């Protein structure tokens, strides 16, 4: 039934492909170049996509520059109304978004249907914040009335990855628009469908032409041109740490402001006094949902040796029972990985684990002959210096490492280049406070999986990111503080 619906939704892409959207107009790439997007389920062609390059980025940056003054000065109530209409548009097309994204990325529908609605929630949240975006303070001195205010930066670039691409795009673009910035969005080349649907929804909601421009293409040409463009004031980027580093270099000549949400190798630390059944559920959810293609996934399990044997045995049984299958089947928990390139990377770690001397307690193999399916995998007998404990695999693959003391757990948890999230399971409150105080991560949950609350800061430390999103932190990035001193 879902496949029939999907075919209905895909028909328009099969007819016209995915075009760019610049200054409110659907356009092919200026060079006429295209690339194909394929489904990871069976490698079939979905449709051609406009392959934008520097010329298209230039046209989009000009459109965003022209549209900026009017968008910046639009009355707050009008801006808020448009953002709410975008949220309503997403809700109305949530099924189409979820089905297209599952087919394009391989993510299972049971998780993706929620991701579409979270996209709408992001727009509603920032619609409510429009009124306070420009708020400032009065820092009066004996001789001056010192007023601060915030002003939007101007046209900004947003570059997004292929994992939960729809939700992540809304998370970046909604606050940019709420702040009064205009946007050029370059979505990931592996997952272009829902970025196009999203931009259409925005225009149907009454967003003026040029406020939101979409340019598809590859990182090395369209992405690069966006980061180097002099009219683009800032780059909000979500992707790999090494790409973040390249973008920083590319943006140096134009002094680009950057905000990076990068990779992770996040620990879930289970002490023997924890509620072990809840910890087990959460550890499984945080690595095997969304195919493990999730920046906040708990890809390292640190388990105390007093309970490790029993915990790992239960974990192995549960991992072996995870349902791998067609992403549109509501029963499926793990779908195919995004692309052959990524599949080759993830499966290469099966050999790495063997060579390093770890045990493959579950999975460690491909599923079927067609599509990029892998069996959910658990490595045990691992140590923190192994590559499987240090490198971001970004698939349904968990590395379990045992520890005996709290100090040892802390040193393992902090012993990677990354620092995005951490999950700590213990019923000892003092230990939880002590441990989280020293854990190097931007976001930590105690006795909980990752539950996002939109007003809280989102972001990582070390190689996991620069800057924070969420609540008012998003405005700190998309806006400039201005001080005006009035003599008394
Ligand atoms: P990626 O870095 O390969 O690509 C991300 C985007 O950057 C794509 O749109 C790509 O075209 C573009 N790009 C590539 N090279 C570029 C260049 N030189 N200049 C400008 N743009 C360029 O990442 P990916 O493989 O698509 O996504 C997975 C990664 O994203 C993982 O590392 C994951 O942890 C990370 N991620 C982080 C968060 C977070 O919030 N911290 C969220 C989701 C994903």
Automatic annotation (TrEMBL):
UniProt keywords, alphabetically: NAD, Oxidoreductase
GO biological process: 4-hydroxyphenylacetate catabolic process
Aldehyde dehydrogenase domain boundaries: 33-484
CDD domains: ALDH_F8_HMSADH
PROSITE patterns listed in its UniProt record: ALDEHYDE_DEHYDR_GLU
A GO molecular-function annotation: 5-carboxymethyl-2-hydroxymuconic-semialdehyde dehydrogenase activity
Catalytic residues (UniProt): 261
Top-level taxon of origin: Bacteria
Membership in a protein family: Belongs to the aldehyde dehydrogenase family.
Annotated NCBIfam families: HpaE (TIGR02299)
Listed name of the protein: 5-carboxymethyl-2-hydroxymuconate semialdehyde dehydrogenase
Gene designation per UniProt: hpaE
């Amino acid at each position: 039934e879902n496949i029939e619906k999907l075919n209905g939704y895909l028909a328009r892409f099969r007819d016209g492909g995915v075009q760019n959207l610049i200054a409110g107009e659907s356009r092919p790439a200026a060079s006429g170049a295209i690339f194909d997007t394929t489904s990871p389920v069976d490698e079939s062609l979905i449709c051609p996509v406009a392959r934008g390059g520097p010329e298209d980025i230039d046209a989009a940056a000009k459109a965003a520059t022209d549209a900026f003054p009017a968008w910046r000065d639009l009355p707050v109530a009008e801006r808020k109304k448009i953002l709410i209409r975008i949220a309503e548009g997403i809700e109305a097309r949530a099924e189409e978004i979820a089905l297209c994204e599952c087919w394009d990325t391989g993510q299972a529908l049971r998780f993706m249907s929620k991701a579409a609605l979270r996209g709408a929630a992001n727009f509603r949240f920032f619609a409510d914040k429009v009124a306070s975006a420009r708020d400032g303070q009065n820092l009066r001195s004996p001789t001056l009335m010192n007023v601060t205010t915030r002003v939007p930066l101007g046209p900004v670039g947003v570059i997004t990855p292929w994992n939960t691409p729809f939700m992540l795009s809304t998370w970046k673009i909604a606050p940019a628009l709420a702040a009064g910035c205009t946007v050029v969005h370059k979505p990931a080349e592996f997952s272009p469908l829902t970025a196009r649907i999203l931009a259409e929804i925005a225009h149907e909601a009454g967003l003026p032409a040029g406020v939101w421009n979409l340019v598809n293409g590859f990182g090395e040409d369209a992405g690069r041109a966006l980061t180097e463009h002099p009219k683009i004031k800032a780059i909000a980027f979500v992707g790999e740490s090494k790409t973040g580093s390249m973008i920083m270099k590319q943006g140096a000549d134009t002094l680009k402001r950057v905000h990076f949400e990068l990779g992770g190798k996040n620990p879930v630390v289970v002490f023997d006094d924890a509620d072990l059944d809840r910890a087990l559920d959460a550890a499984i959810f945080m690595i095997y949902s969304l195919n493990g293609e999730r920046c906040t996934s708990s890809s390292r399990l640190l388990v105390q040796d007093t309970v490790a044997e029993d915990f790992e045995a239960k974990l192995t049984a549960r991992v072996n029972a995870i349902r791998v299958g067609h992403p549109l089947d509501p029963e499926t928990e793990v779908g195919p990985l995004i692309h052959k390139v990524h599949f080759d990377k993830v499966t290469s770690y099966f050999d790495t684990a063997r060579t390093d001397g770890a045990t493959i307690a579950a999975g460690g193999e491909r599923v079927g002959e067609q599509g990029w399916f892998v069996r959910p995998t658990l490595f045990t007998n691992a140590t923190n210096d192994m590559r499987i404990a240090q490198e971001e695999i970004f698939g349904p693959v968990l590395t379990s490492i045992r520890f005996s003391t709290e100090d040892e757990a802390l040193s393992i948890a902090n012993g990677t280049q990354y620092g995005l999230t951490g999950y700590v399971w213990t019923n000892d409150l003092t230990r939880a406070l002590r441990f989280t105080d020293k854990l190097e991560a931007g976001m930590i949950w105690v006795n909980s999986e990752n539950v996002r609350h939109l007003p809280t800061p989102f972001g990582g430390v070390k190689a996991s990111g620069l800057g924070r999103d969420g609540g008012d932190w998003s405005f700190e990035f998309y806006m400039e503080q201005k001080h005006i001193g009035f003599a008394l």
